[in-house]
Amino acid sequence: MPPSLFRHASFEISVAQPQAMAQAGGAEIAFAGRSNAGKSSAINTLVGHTRLAYVSKTPGRTQLINLFRLKNGAALVDLPGYGYADVPLAVRLQWQGLLEHYLTRREALVGLVLIMDARRPFTELDRQMIGWFATTGKPLHCLLTKSDKLTRQEQTKTLAAARRTASADFPAVPITLQLFSSLKKTGMEETEQVVVGWLGAVDQTGVAGQSVTPPAREGQGEP
Fold first, then answer.
1. How many folded domains does the chain comprise?
2. Can you give the residue range of the structural domain that contains 128?
3. Disulfide-capable partner of 83 in 41, 125, 127, 172 (CB 3.0 to 4.6 Å)?
4. pTM of the predicted model as reported, rounded to 2 decimal places
């Protein structure tokens, strides 16, 4: 596995509509999650940057699609958090439409990393997200975040129960799950392995229109 897939990611663009993002920009890995589930913290932990994705004490702050370019040419796409009740209904409906449009129609998207609080996985809105994404047939990987708040025994039981739920309630969806802790920085290698596998499948099949690894610049060797 290439070391540090997510390291040295750089901000590229924030948009309010998926149509504003160029399609020919390399394979995309989306990160989505309920507000306050720890999505921004998970992204920052993976990329090794404390403030690449903004971490707010006010849930629901992220209202745009934020795209970060990885060194290999692929992109990490931070989607707006969902489910924050204090956001006006009109805004919540706008975000819902934005998320559904991106998840179901984005050709460059190769997989979704869904962030769920390990203490409250598979909420109604998480299930809605899975339902939208299931229509694409693309893989979905769930990070059960804040696992440091559970005892080791609770972690084992939580992961086993979540896997049973995924298998029973979404039998046709290619879902994988793992525990993750931004505080303890655990689960990072497993996440990278999953995403590297997605990008490798893109390289082999040509999905998303191009290889995710750009050619080396003149005078430079392979990274």
1. 1
2. 10-209
3. 125
4. 0.84
